Automatic annotation (TrEMBL):
Residues 93-266 form the DNA helicase Pif1-like DEAD-box helicase domain. PANTHER family: ATP-DEPENDENT DNA HELICASE (PTHR10492:SF57), PTHR10492. This is ATP-dependent DNA helicase. Pfam families: PIF1. Its cofactor is Mg(2+). It comes from Araneus ventricosus. Gene3D superfamilies: P-loop containing nucleotide triphosphate hydrolases. Keywords: ATP-binding, DNA damage, DNA recombination, DNA repair, Helicase, Hydrolase, Nucleotide-binding. One of its GO terms (molecular function) is ATP hydrolysis activity. Its EC number is 5.6.2.3. Belongs to the helicase family. It catalyses: ATP + H2O = ADP + phosphate + H(+). GO terms for biological process: DNA recombination; DNA repair; telomere maintenance.
Amino acid sequence: MLFAMICGFGEVEDVPDLWVQHQVSLCEDFVHRYSEQTGPHYALADIEELLTSYNLSLQKLHLPTVDLPASVLERANFDVVEEQAKANSYTIQFNSEQRNVVEILLSAVYNNAADTPKCYFLDGPAGTGKTFVYSTLLHTIRGRGDDVIPVASTGIAATLLIRGRTAHSVFKIPIDLNATSTCNLKPNTKEADMLLKTKLIVWDEAPMTHVHAFLAVDRLLQDLTKCKEPFGGKVILLGGDFRQVLPVILRGSRTLTVASSLKKTRSLVEIS
């Protein structure tokens, strides 16, 4: 994201040279997740998506181009049998609370009853197994041949999710937010199609993100699905720990910080 911001605000004249200088660092996570050969392609595709917020592209900046956006590359086919096996191996390690959470979410995903809640928040301090629950849900749903989108509020948190990405990258959340902000993701695109097809959205470290970002994503999903339910009727699991970092408000009071938090998002069912 920092590389895209530097390019977007025009802080460097020779962008290709900047890429060459820092390519190893910029591609490190992608190489670790994929391979030496494909890692740089994923990195460039991710940068391409971030650049759209600044009306830029790899081509405009004279950077190497890739054929597909990261959102499409991330959907590389999963081995359904392997995903099912991983889901089973994770499930047998559950405690009763973790099992309850997964059962609630899977029921929400595959139960079409009108009165089934769709928006959930998983609360728990560090080390209580939230990531383990996320991973089980990802393997289980992918093991059934369905799509699931894992995102996080920070890049570091996103690396802990299987093929996770930042929420800003997936939803095209603008950098400068206000109460009426809209995401920069267009309908009838491959990225929009990915959101429409997904069975579940998992969003880790959600308490760190300003409520205006959630409102923007809410508008985006309602616009794409043509459904006025919260988040367009999509099943969404937000997770994190309000005991840790809340949205950072410049010179903000305690009251203003709380007012900017996820607590102000409507229609969440808390499960802990």
